[in-house]
TrEMBL record:
Protein family (similarity comment): In the C-terminal section; belongs to the HTP reductase family.
Pfam families, A to Z: dCMP_cyt_deam_1, RibD_C
Name recorded for this polypeptide: Riboflavin biosynthesis protein RibD
Keywords of the record: Hydrolase, Metal-binding, Multifunctional enzyme, NADP, Oxidoreductase, Riboflavin biosynthesis, Zinc
Cofactor binding, per record: Binds 1 zinc ion.
Length: 330
């Protein structure tokens, strides 16, 4: 790995700190580097401001003059009521070179941020670490490309694909390591969705119960066309839960990442509408037999139509269980 690739990789890793908290803005990471040493770091703050560049430049102060900047997304070119354009801030800081992992597809920037830097005499490189940056900002990029958040479906299932016992009991199918990993995924999402059936069967807390990340619980949401309000008795009632009357309401959320935690009816409706971008399957070494499947009818007529839609993106052991991550091929 070249020095530039290594530094960009560090900036992209930094960007992950904002995941699940920066919407509607992207989660960006930024480093100020002087003579090969990192002198300041920034990442998009909760609510989307300050931007990563502003945080890093403020931390760098006078050390920014003549330094190089590594940033995971093209600096913005638009002034908003919430803050200045990062491209202008960078020019004013006296930075001599800016390395950008990827162009910002947001039409308010889309090449104009880099152009403004270039015309002010700042050296600009584009594309180092682009694939990793795309992955780190997949939710934001989904909003720009598809007009909706990235939607991830989580399923905890048996070897034979069952998510609950015939009577509905489902806690717990997987072990502590898998459940901790699933909690981390919650921390990285803006909103967590369940169907009314899961609310009534399990009354889940939908929070993050990992040491140090307790304040990272995503906003809970319930999908239901019949509920008038989320019952005040729900365990998450004090976290300003959303009631989504339809899939359109879900797609219209102004957030980057939505995590769906079931149940089967909700999974089916989203799979049938081809709205799932990623599946996290936590598979436990148990056979349940008669019990509820992970999804019901999704409108498939022929087996051939089921093929070619999903790619195994990652798999690994988590204690006695196995995580399989599937990505929708689009
Ligand atoms: N192992 C696991 O990973 C896991 C995870 C979660 C749940 N579970 C289990 O799954 C079971 C519950 O699953 P379930 O299939 O019965 O229920 P569910 O999917 O949680 O909820 C179904 C309800 O969601 C609403 N809904 C679904 N699609 C909708 C749409 N397109 N528009 C509007 N509302 C929609 C409807 O509510 P209205 O009828 O009010 O409109 C529907 O009745 C429980 O036994 C639970 O323990 C297992």
């Amino acid at each position: 790995m070249s020095e530039a690739a290594r530094l960009m990789d560090a900036a992209i890793r930094l960007s992950l700190r904002g995941l699940g908290r920066t919407a509607p803005n992207p989660n960006v990471g930024c480093l100020v580097v002087r003579n090969g040493r990192i002198v300041a770091r920034g990442w998009t703050q909760p609510g989307g401001r300050p931007h990563a560049e502003m945080m890093a430049l403020e931390a760098a102060g006078a050390a920014a003059r003549g330094a190089e900047l590594y940033v995971s997304l093209e600096p913005c070119a638009h002034v908003s009521p919430r803050g200045p354009a990062c491209a202008d801030l960078i020019v004013a800081s006296g930075v001599s070179a800016v390395h950008i992992a990827m162009r910002d597809p947001d039409p308010r920037t889309d090449g104009q941020g880099a152009a403004r830097l270039g015309s002010a005499g700042v050296a600009v490189t584009l594309g180092t670490g682009e694939a990793a940056a795309r992955q780190a900002m997949a939710g934001f990029l989904s909003r720009i490309a598809l007009g909706r958040p990235r939607i991830t479906l989580k399923l905890a299932m048996s070897i034979d694909g069952r998510v609950s016992m015939p009577g509905g009991e489902s806690q717990w199918i997987t072990g502590p390591e898998a459940r901790a990993h699933a909690h981390l995924q919650r921390a990285l999402a803006d909103v967590i969705v369940i169907g009314r059936g899961t609310l009534e069967a399990d009354d889940p807390s939908l929070d993050v119960r990992l040491p140090g990340l307790e304040d990272r619980s995503p906003r809970p949401a319930v999908l239901s066309a019949t509920l008038d309000a989320i019952p005040a008795s729900a365990k998450f009632a004090d976290r300003d839960p959303l009631l989504l009357a339809s899939v359109d309401d879900l797609c219209g959320l102004a957030v980057n990442d939505v995590l769906v935690e079931g149940g089967a009816a909700t999974a089916s409706t989203l799979l049938a509408a081809d709205l799932i971008d990623r599946m996290l399957v936590y598979r436990a070494p148990v056979v349940i037999g008669d019990g509820a499947p992970g999804a019901g009818r999704i409108g498939l007529e022929r087996l051939a139509d089921a093929h070619g839609r999903w790619r195994l993106a990652e798999t690994r052991a988590l204690g006695n269980d196995r995580l399989e991550v599937y990505a929708r091929t689009r």
